[in-house]
Specification:
Elements lengths: L5 E5 L6 H13 L4 E8 L10 H19 L9 E7 L2 H12 L3 E5 L1 E2 L6 E2 L2 H9 L4 E4 L10 E5 L3 H13 L6 E7 L3 H6 L6 H22 L5 E6 L3 H12 L3 E5 L13 H9 L3 E5 L4
Parallel strand pairs: 1-2, 1-4, 2-3, 4-7, 8-9, 8-11, 9-10, 11-12
Antiparallel strand pairs: 5-6, 7-12
Helix pairs in contact: 3-4, 8-9
């Protein structure tokens, strides 16, 4: 059984901070985890021109802001601490997580005009690329525990581990596993002079994908699974699935979004992290 004793929350002081804290304590409650709230004062290029006394004032102000947000949060009687430092946010969050031997990182999406309309900034992408820990990205209001979790798979060992992690962490015996593949377009068939055999070839591809998926499901004793196909692509298929099923959390496995062995490589990872409206758990194996 994995050690779920510590969770680290990367927090910016904004209108969605309370929702991020609410979610962090809700998930921490599942395993009686300790919570470390981390805020980095990122002064950027101008940091070297700011006096130490001013930095201390910023730290005090940030600490008061976090404590004020916590007044409206149900901390569930859990143990928590707050750390504020002048640092690059992604580096500070990952350093604290390493020192605390954390099992998960929790961060929020950046705001545009309100909490419903969110974007992912460089901090989220940097952590997803460079950390060796599962990353929970909070995008929605967090008044209740997750009820409709789905795990996306590419049939790899990492995605299989992501399913096991989410089942153990959220204490859910069954989490639906979804695999998507892209159909070959009619244009591609015509290009290869196989248009007359389009139905036969398409059926062979479907049978091949179904066989791979069935083997994965059987080998991993998965109780709830679904195969979907799409003419546009995997990202489109998975995004549509979430929109149609109203899932509140998506789990997918990754070795880092720029790792060529990863299901969510490059633009696919960035696109899903960005476009999905529900919360996202990017499972990165702990090292």
């Amino acid at each position: 059984m994995e050690n779920f004793n510590n969770i680290v929350v990367g927090l910016d002081i904004s209108n969605n901070a309370k929702e991020v804290l609410n979610r962090a304590f809700l998930v921490a409650k599942r395993n009686d985890s300790k919570v470390t709230i981390v805020h980095a004062i990122d002064t950027g290029f101008f940091g070297k021109f700011i006096k130490d006394a001013e930095i201390e004032k910023l730290k005090i102000s940030a600490l008061k802001g976090i404590e004020k947000e916590l007044e409206g949060v149900n901390t569930q009687g859990l143990s928590y601490s707050i750390e504020v430092q002048k640092a690059k946010p992604s580096v500070f969050i990952m350093d604290v997580a390493k020192n605390k031997d954390a099992c998960m990182l929790v961060i929020g999406a950046n705001e545009k005009k309100d909490f419903v309309t969110t974007i992912l900034g460089s901090t989220a992408h940097n952590i997803a690329q460079k950390s060796n820990l599962p990353l929970l990205i909070v995008k929605n209001n967090s008044s209740a525990e997750y009820k409709k979790i789905v795990a996306f798979t590419d049939l790899s060992k990492v995605s299989q581990k992501s399913l096991i992690f989410s089942q153990n962490f959220f204490h859910q015996e069954v989490i639906k596993c979804v695999y998507a593949y892209k159909k070959i377009s009619e244009i591609a068939f015509r290009y290869h002079d196989n248009y007359e055999n389009i139905d036969e070839i398409a059926q062979e591809i479907q049978m091949h994908e179904q066989e791979k998926f069935d083997t994965f499901v059987k080998e991993n004793n998965i109780k709830d699974a679904e195969l979907i196909e799409d003419r546009v692509g995997v990202t489109n298929a998975l995004t549509n699935y979430i929109n149609e099923n109203n899932n509140d959390l998506v789990v997918f496995g990754s070795k880092g979004v720029h790792n060529v062995d990863s299901f969510l490589y490059g633009s696919t990872a960035s696109s899903l992290m960005q476009s999905l409206k529900c919360d996202v758990l990017v499972y990165i194996p702990k090292k």
